[in-house]
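Entry:
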Amino acid sequence: MSFQKIDGVEIAARAHGEKCWNAGESAGGRMTRILIVYHSQTGNTEKMAGAVAEGAASIESIEVILKEAKDTSLEDLLVCDGLAIGTPENFGYMSGAVKDFFDRTFYPAEGKVFRKPYVVFISSGNDGTGALSSIDRIALGYQFKKVYEPVIARNSKGGVTNEILAQCRELGQTIAGGCEAGIY
C-alpha cells in the first residue's frame, strides 16, 4: 500500500482495492481530482466504475481516485473536484454501502461541497429509476450539481455490455474534462 499527501490529506492508493491514476501535479499546480465511489456485489458496477475511471484518466492533468463506498471518507469527498457515484439497484434503491457513504458524510460536509459536480452510473436488474431518484434526492440535500445524464445498465443480470462500458468511459471523460476546464 502506498500513500500520497494531497492538500494535507493522506490518500491511500491501492488499499482495499482502490486505485489512483495519474497521481502528481500539473505544471500549473495541483491536479483536478475525480472521485469515483461505488459498490458492487456481482462485479457489474465495478466494471462500470473501472470504465468511468478509464474515461476520466484519459484527460490530461486529471487524478482519478477509485474507491469502494465503504472505504470512502469525508476527506475524500472534500478534496475532490468532481464525483461519480456508482451503485447496483437493490430493491428499487441504491445499495446500502452507497447510502452508508452518504450517511457518514452528509452533515460533516454540509456547506463545504456546494455545487460540487456529480454523475451517476447504475447497474440494474430492473430499470434503475428507483436508485437514481434516491441518489438525486440526496444529492439535492448536499447541493451537488448534476452535470451529465446517468448511465444505467438495465437488466444487467447477465453482465454489462460493451456499449454500456463505452457510455461509462464517456461519462468519466465528461466530468473530468468539465472539471479540468472549469466549466462545472
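Confidence is low (pLDDT under 50) at residues 1-27.
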